[in-house]
Amino acid sequence: MQILFFALRNFNRARTRTWITVGAMGFACGIMIFYASLLEGWLAGMEKNAVGMDLGEFQVHAHGFRADPDLYKRIAGQEQVLSLIGKEGFVAAPRLYASGLAAAGNASSGIELRGVDLAREGLVTALNEHVWQGQWLDGQDQAGVVLGRKLARILGLAVGDEVVVVAQAADGSTANELFRVRGILKSVAEGVDRSGFLMPASTFRRMMIVPDGAHAIVVKRQQATENLTQATARLARLLPGYEVCNWRQLQPVLARLFEMSDIALVIMLLITYAAVGILTLNALLMSVFERIPEFGVMKALGFSPWGLFAMIVAESLLQVTVAAGLALAAGLPLSLYFSTHPIDFSGFVQSSSTIAGVALDAKWYCVVTVNSVVLPILFLYLIAGLAILYPALKAAMLKPLDAIYHR
Amino acid sequence: MNRASFPACIFLALLVVGGGIFGLAGGAVSAPFPPSPDEQEARAILLEIDDLWRATSSQGRVRMEVKTANYTRTMLMDIWSKGKDKSLVRIVSPLKEKDTASLKTGNTMYTYLPKTDRTIRLTSSMMMSSWMGSHFTNDDLVKESQLAEDYNPRISFRGRRDGKEIIEFTLQPRPDAAVVWGRIVMSVTAQGHLPLLATYYDEDNALARTIYFSEVKNMGGRLLPALLKVVPTDKPGEYTELVYEAMRFDLDLPESLFSLLELRRR
Q1: A210 contacts in B (CB within 8 Å)?
Q2: Beta bridge partners of A344
């Protein structure tokens, strides 16, 4: 209690120096809270595009389909599989895939045909809400298709235009149909943007002569509280005859990027706080050096070395706590503001930019998480704690007589 | 999704005979170094074979049977060719695909789709796709005349094999050639130089496919194998069979036959 009293008293003794130190720490910490929230937002945006728009949380395939996609490698009895998945507490949607060629005017391009279950797709992805121009698929409009953004540009297509598709149907015949562009998607992922050609599953089945089965079943947890790996294992046990992968396994590069982002945050914190640490060290050293005779008197009066050490540490921790309070007061509202008002990088980032095959959103939102707030503050305490060790130890080791007569 | 790929020289040997069976005669012109005596001899014999198959133009009817693990289908096609670079294939049956036509001019390939009444130009991304559900690819048709430019031939065997006097050629890719095959081995009869067998090896020197030539017949005044069977090594039980039902050579075919306008004609 006595130490805390002394620490509080000393906090106010060299006000200018104290507040400059506190201000620097608070500013750095506030900026880091904002940066961490922005990084969380960027990652959340990437995950939303990759998982929420395209991959889904899990995918189920027939064995061998992922290694060598084939029109004939289908999940037979898909309704039974969907029912099993549903009973286990997941939501799921089947998808159909085929490769083909789309042509409009003199332009043509290779495409990935995707048959979408319109009733179920919305349960596992938000792709239906990600339409840039026109409208999402409609079961009543069997000739209406939705295209990836780059594909539409390559073919020079706009909403309402006609496009012809050629592919090899399951019976070996040449499947060809005339479609009308109903919608064009916003940027999702490189694959979907460049070759995504979405149509109702019923249209796909009729054109490609695939009366039953599905090439993929996209699965999502109803409540995202269960660990991803555990949920994957549970699904795999449920469907032993199929390949079950979570999005991290489907997109290992992206998963690695997410893991690396935590390390990037820590490196950024260390670099920023290194400057703060040097400032704190300098301020505390000054504070210790100008009070050496005072410490000598205190020791002569019976103050123990560890008591002196604790007092200086308490002084510093007090400054860090005030700085953390200031950082929270500035950084948190700033981050919360930008969580609803995105920073628009459209002038710098192309709409088609991707990282690890996933579309990069030009509008960056902050996402405030426990991690984005607590981590910068914890690091501030850690760096400041390291910076005060030397001055505090120096004060603790002083000899009373030498200290009293120190000039 | 049928990914088997076959050099177009063989494809045209059966589908469009006017294209020349091995298309190697012109290769001597583009050789960067003077060919060895062995290579010269190989080229000379191949030129003879090429002359045997080549005509200024051709017309015929071909039946194609495709058997895969997932389907079996038979198609009847009318074919026309002029020189090495122009060919037209029009499907006669089945009814579902009747009048679907493929036109090749130089390195460009177009397909006419009667159902949608559209003509599309095939892009590079579609080149390795199956042609009409067969074990041929679109690339086989387009690159038919490039074998001579991409491979160096030499005689690798001359003698008796399986009761027949044969000559075997081995085609090795030129160092700078961007090709699919690591090696092609072709056997022809010593007398008459009629093709018997062609084997295709990948870059790891593993056998990828075999083409069998048989049922030699006189067609259009030429003695030619009327049956060609393509067997992919990695797909047991699968094959594509081409049967020449009729062929005529050296006809006066108009240039307009190989136009986009003619492609759409039903």
Answers
A1: none
A2: A363
Whether pTM exceeds 0.90: no
Is the ipTM higher than 0.85? The answer is no
Count chain A–chain B contacts defined by CB atoms under 8 A: 72
H or E segment and range at residue B178: none
Q: Evaluate whether B158 touches B181 at the Cβ level (below 8 Å).
A: no
Which of B1, B69, B120 is nearest residue A101 as measured by Cβ atoms?
A: B120
Count up the domains in chain A and report the number.
2
Q: Which DSSP symbol is given to B260? A: H
A229 and A277 co-located in one domain: no
Burial A229-243 (b: 16+ CB within 10 A, else e): eebbebbbebbeebb
B129: left (phi over 0), alpha (psi -120 to 50) or beta: beta
Whether residue A247 is contained in a domain is answered as: no
Whether residue A173 sits in one domain with residue A218:
yes
Minimal CA separation from B3 to chain A, in Å: 10
pLDDT at A184: 96
A chain contacts of residue B121, beta-carbon cutoff 8 Å: 103, 106, 108
Among A217, A241, A265, residue at a domain's last position = A241
Helix (H, G, I), strand (E, B) or coil at A59: strand
- pLDDT tens digit string along A305-358? 888 888 888 888 888 899 999 999 999 999 999 988 888 776 666 555 666 666
Mutant choice from B98, B116, B132, B136 vs A, greatest count of A C-beta within 10 A: B116
A249 CA: distance to closest CA in chain B (Å): 25
| Residue from B133, B188, B128, B156 nearest B8 by CA | B128
Check CB contact under 8 Å for A171 and B118. no
Do A180 and A276 lie in one domain? The reply is: no
Note whether A229 and A339 are same-domain residues. Answer: no
Task: Report the length, in residues, of chain B.
Answer: 266
Rounded to an integer, the average pLDDT of A205-212 is 94
Looking at residue B173, its amino acid is P
Give residue-wise pLDDT tens across range B83-117: 878 889 999 999 988 999 989 888 788 889 998 88
pLDDT digits (tens, 9 = 90+) for A151-203: 999 999 999 999 999 998 999 888 999 999 999 998 888 889 999 999 999 99
Query: Is residue A248 one of the residues assigned to a domain?
Result: no
Domain assignment present for A57: no
Q: Are residues A17 and A98 in the same domain?
A: no
Q: Are residues A34 and A89 in the same domain?
A: no
- Cβ contact (<8 Å) for B115 and A176? yes
Domain encompassing residue A302: 2-51+254-404
Query: Does residue A246 lie within any of the structural domains?
Result: no
User: What is d(CA A36, CA A372) in angstroms, rounded to the nearest whole number?
Assistant: 5
Same-domain check for residues A316 and A280:
yes
Cis peptide leading into A342, omega within 30 of 0?
no
Position A324 scores a pLDDT of 93
Residues A260 and A308 occupy one common structural domain: yes
